[in-house]
Amino acid sequence: MFFPARCALGALVAALLAACGSSVPSASQSSRYFDNSRHADAWSGGARMIPIHTPNGAFNVWVKRVGNNPSLKVLLLHGGPAVPHDYLEAMDSFLPAAGIEYYYYDQLGAGNSDQPKNDDLWTTNRFVDEVEQVRTALGLTKDNFCLYGQSWGGLLAIEYALAHQDQLKCLVISNMMASIPAYNAYAKSKLMPELNASDLATVQQLEAENKTDDPRYMGILVPQFYEKHFLRRPAAEWPEPVNRAFARQNEHIYTLMQGPSELGAGGRLVNWDRFADLKRITVPTLVIGAKYDTMDPAYMEKMAKQLPKGEYAFMPEGSHLAMYDDQQRYFAALVGFLKKQD
């Protein structure tokens, strides 16, 4: 965390703590945050493999803890499906300074976790059960466990909350609508018309012919769609963790469940809809939407109103990865919400 110069002079720190605000951690707070004495994973830098049992065999998934806070522990669910945790590493610039303990986690089939080749594994219910096994292995409880999900991770977080909210302290749904049919309707009415008509026809033809590896496919979508609605910078300037995540993406699982791109969904998730069930989620929940997102921000605001303890944070400069292109607002909202639960 960057501190203003007026707070950087060692001799004046104690006198100026109040002037700099309560977000500046004291020496004792920093010491507690980095106290690894009760963490068996400390010897490996917080990283470990967790065994997962499924109807199709036993596997291992990778997690990595950052920090120490007995009353607030955030498990991060990445998007995709099967785009690994790497792109979430922007968290490192904000959550430690706020004293928030958090866990990177590659879901089965992604990143550092096992990647079995069995399509029976790639169902929402099986992923929910996996998250519950991870929670149990990490010792997270309703007194300290906050679940964060971004994109597909937000869908998974909703499903987990509907099945296991008795284990939750709070929930964050970032950049994910509660209905794939509504997402597809938004893509059709708002996102697709922004593409050049002939280019859109080419994209749809290549999808119909299962030729999405054709260079023309991403050659159209990157400048006309991804740079406008996914991360609002030229792709050549995208941050290294984002590029690393997509280089390690399990494309088979992604396509099987989501479809070939973010321009709507056409895989196993195509009929998923939980909007009417949001009223059953009674834990404090933050919904984060963004003006230029692939997901309809107005719909996401309605989600927050549907949730009994819902809050909505709007990113006016952000897209699907608002944690990068509207970063200061994004983390002010996220950290503010999490600190209220601590």
Question: Could you tell me the mean pLDDT?
Answer: 92
H/E element order: HHEEEEHEHEHHHHHEHEHH
Say which CATH homologous superfamily of the domain at 40-181 and 269-341 is assigned: Alpha/Beta hydrolase fold, catalytic domain
Unreliable residue runs: 1-22
Relevant terms:
about 350 residues; alpha/beta; Rossmann fold; eight-stranded mixed sheet; 12 helices; 8 strands; globular; disordered N terminus
Concise overview:
By secondary structure, the protein is α/β, with parallel strands linked by helices. Helix content is 37%, strand content 15%.
Question: How would you sum up this structure, described in words?
Answer:
The protein is α/β, with parallel strands linked by helices. The protein is built from 12 helices and 8 strands. The chain has helices at 13-20, 27-33, 124-138, 152-164, 180-191, 197-208, 215-229, 240-247, 251-257, 297-306, 322-325, 327-341, and strands spanning 47-54, 57-66, 73-77, 101-106, 145-150, 170-174, 285-290, 310-315. An 8-stranded mixed β-sheet has the order 1-2-4-3-5-6-7-8, sandwiched between helices. Strand 5 (145-150), helix 4 (152-164) and strand 6 (170-174) form a beta-alpha-beta unit. It is globular and about 60 Å long. It starts with 12 loop residues before the first helix and ends with a helix.
